[in-house]
């Protein structure tokens, strides 16, 4: 088998869970849930010795974990909660009382956890990833179980000692790791992009095409519910910034400008802000590819459904194209703000959104590649510098800007011959990776520079 081929599922990329951050909320919750399961595998003798669980956060998880709700997410995972079924109101209620303890019961043994068991470590830690957490089950001074986890963006988690991409037990029928290889399969086998992604998905997941289509419809429904909730909800977002929601106001403004050429953009902005504001409030969203970028594709797909009147089949095809681009970025660079800055989140989402629009419009694979390349190229070097560690400023407006750039990338890619585009998608992803590597950690989701230093003015 081609062990370096992409074997990520569409539904690993598009995951449902609570905001505000896939790397700081969904990922830590999954890691803590995994640790809970490993506690359950211990012997009765070992379980009897234990009396506490220590949770240590390093890097970006430590720097901005409070604003992202990482502490609540870890406790939720230890309690047995999972992202897609978590009640966001119950999640937000966790740890409000600093003296409250939460009973983690495993195989009849209970270990109380609370804020005093969570350590936001500021010291340097030798780790291959920016988002690192260490979970320990201890009895007195004795560590009975210790696991180290890395949250690598988009809710993906690696446990120390495991490969970043576990080898799939089944080889996809069309293995690829670059856009060049993917396009070669399309040409050789006379396939459309969505047909190839569907064939690989069937092989990797064992689901039927009907089941996959139904799940994509569900994912789109989750996205559009977030948009609709955000268009209704007014008031102030949680946190010290006291940022007021804008989406409902923009939406009303757009409806009153139906004869203006600007109304189209205002509607798109409103839809993207709506989903992103729901994410910032801790609501249920879809990683696309991350929670911090969960307004771009929901806004574009909502626009495509309600303004372009695309049917379900067309929306699904576009989602497959978006997934293909997301796979390539994740496999060859990163979708993590802590690794790539905001180009890894909004830049990836914009490229995926551009691919969605281009493929859904029935354009060629060359046009799809050009649109995605343009989307990434014009986010290169974008910093991730959230004020106060909250996914609010500049994150919410960046979702709207990322969607507008995606739409313009679609227009640019389809306004002439795609062969006129000089830079390939594979090339720009390589540049993205190099840029992320060279970028100062102060600008990668640590709130130590850039706009984050404007907090005193808010």
UniProtKB/TrEMBL annotation:
It holds the Pfam family SDH_alpha. It catalyses: L-serine = pyruvate + NH4(+). Its EC number is 4.3.1.17. GO terms for biological process: gluconeogenesis. Pathway: Carbohydrate biosynthesis; gluconeogenesis. Residues 189-452 form the Serine dehydratase-like alpha subunit domain. Its cofactor is [4Fe-4S] cluster. Keywords: 4Fe-4S, Gluconeogenesis, Iron, Iron-sulfur, Lyase, Metal-binding. GO terms for molecular function: 4 iron, 4 sulfur cluster binding; L-serine ammonia-lyase activity; metal ion binding. The keyword Iron-sulfur applies. The keyword ATP-binding does not apply. Residues 9-161 form the Serine dehydratase beta chain domain. Belongs to the iron-sulfur dependent L-serine dehydratase family. This is L-serine dehydratase. It comes from Arsenicibacter rosenii.
């Amino acid at each position: 088998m081609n062990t370096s081929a992409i074997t990520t599922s569409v539904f690993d990329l598009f995951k449902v869970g609570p905001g505000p951050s896939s790397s700081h909320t969904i990922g830590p919750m999954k890691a803590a849930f995994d640790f809970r399961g490993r506690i359950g595998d211990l012997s009765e003798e070992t379980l009897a010795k234990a009396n506490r669980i220590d949770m240590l956060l390093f890097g970006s998880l430590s720097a901005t974990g409070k604003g992202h709700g990482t502490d609540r997410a870890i406790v939720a995972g230890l309690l047995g909660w999972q992202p897609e079924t978590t009640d966001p109101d119950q999640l937000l209620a966790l740890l409000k009382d600093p003296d409250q303890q939460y009973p983690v019961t495993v195989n009849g043994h209970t270990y109380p956890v609370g804020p005093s068991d969570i350590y936001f470590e500021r010291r340097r830690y030798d780790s291959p990833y920016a988002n690192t957490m260490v979970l320990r089950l201890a009895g007195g001074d004795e560590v009975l179980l210790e696991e180290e986890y890395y949250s690598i963006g988009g809710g993906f988690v690696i446990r120390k000692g495991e490969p970043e991409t576990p080898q799939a037990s089944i080889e996809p029928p069309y293995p690829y790791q670059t856009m060049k290889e993917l396009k070669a399969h399309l040409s050789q086998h006379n396939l459309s992009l969505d047909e190839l992604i569907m064939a690989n998905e069937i092989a990797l997941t064992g689901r039927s095409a009907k089941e996959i289509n139904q799940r994509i419809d569900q994912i789109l429904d989750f996205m559009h519910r977030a948009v609709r909730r955000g268009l209704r909800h007014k008031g102030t977002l949680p946190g010290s910034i006291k940022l007021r929601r804008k989406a409902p106001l923009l939406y009303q403004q757009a409806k009153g400008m139906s004869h203006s050429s600007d109304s189209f953009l205002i509607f798109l902005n409103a839809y993207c802000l709506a989903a992103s504001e729901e994410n910032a409030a801790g609501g249920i969203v879809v990683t696309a590819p991350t929670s911090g970028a969960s307004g771009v594709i929901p806004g574009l797909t909502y626009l495509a459904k309600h303004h372009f009147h695309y049917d379900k089949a067309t929306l699904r095809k576009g989602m497959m194209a978006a997934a293909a681009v997301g796979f390539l970025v994740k496999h060859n660079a990163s979708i993590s703000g802590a690794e790539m800055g905001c180009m890894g989140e909004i830049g990836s989402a914009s490229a995926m959104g551009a691919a969605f629009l281009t493929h859904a419009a029935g354009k060629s694979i060359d046009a799809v590649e050009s649109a995605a390349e343009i989307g990434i190229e014009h986010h290169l070097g974008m910093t991730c510098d959230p004020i106060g560690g909250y996914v609010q400023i500049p994150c919410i407006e960046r979702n709207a800007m990322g969607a507008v750039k995606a739409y313009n990338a679609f227009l640019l890619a389809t306004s002439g011959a795609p062969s006129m585009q000089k830079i390939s998608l594979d090339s720009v992803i390589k540049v993205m990776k190099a840029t992320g590597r060279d970028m100062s950690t102060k600008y990668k989701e640590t709130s130590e520079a850039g706009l984050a230093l404007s907090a005193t003015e808010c």
